[in-house]
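#random but structural
TW: two for the price of one
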Amino acid sequence: MSTLAPHRARFEVEGAELAAELLTSHGVAASDVDRVWEAIALHTSPGIAERRGLLAYLTREGVGIDFGRNAHVVADRHERIHERHPRLSMVSSLVDAIVEHAARAEAAAPRYSIAGELVRERREAGVTELERAAAGCPWGI
């Protein structure tokens, strides 16, 4: 769990804020920082991210591919990708981090947000639909 995030807002927003701070500190133009912020903040918002420009679209699609959605896009090179960038229990580790982050503040997991749903599913079933779906992707969880 990042100690940099204040744990008062949704993980997408706090991640976007951290990325914006980093980019700004490196002199990236404000308009580019804003596009990155938007792409990160919206990456879990289906139907919205895809309509907010190429960067937001590609960010959402890239995350989706990592979870096995549209896996055919990287089917011919996924072994090379995962050799260079091992998954290291990525899905369960990420869900654990999101659920832990959500436990710190009510605003971090509003009802029907991805964090709110992951918390609810973990509480009710011990495993999330995201983890179940990712287990079926070609490279596992």
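TW: number two ↓
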Amino acid sequence: MIRQAGPEDEAAIRNCADLAYARYVPLIGRKPAPMLADYAAQIAAGVVHLAEDAAGAFQGFIVFYPEDGAMLLENVAVLPKAAGQGVGRALMAFCEDCARQQGLPAIRLYTNAKMTENLSIYPRLGYVQTGRRQEDGFDRVFFEKPL
């Protein structure tokens, strides 16, 4: 089940981000942006959704919102113990459905260039690389998927 996050979910979301992104700290040389995000503010803004298993246990989360005529998928993270079970794909499909419901023509996202597995995963999901640039001190690769 995917539902909107509430303030009571912040600790689980922060923990998931820390667990999911910790392996990138040595590659990037510092914490990636999702480990530094203000999840309380994002939850309050209503832009965070989370996935739970059939028993209601937290599995992962996604952050997305409309920006510049498209849906910006800012972050998707899955607990390592839930990886490979389709949670990330379900969260991304949910984002795409929400974008369609809002009449938005595309999903945009970015990833760190050092997160090399993402550079092959996103094209398999229909995303096309649209650019690469330094932003906030990170080497980011940008993707877009038309809906």
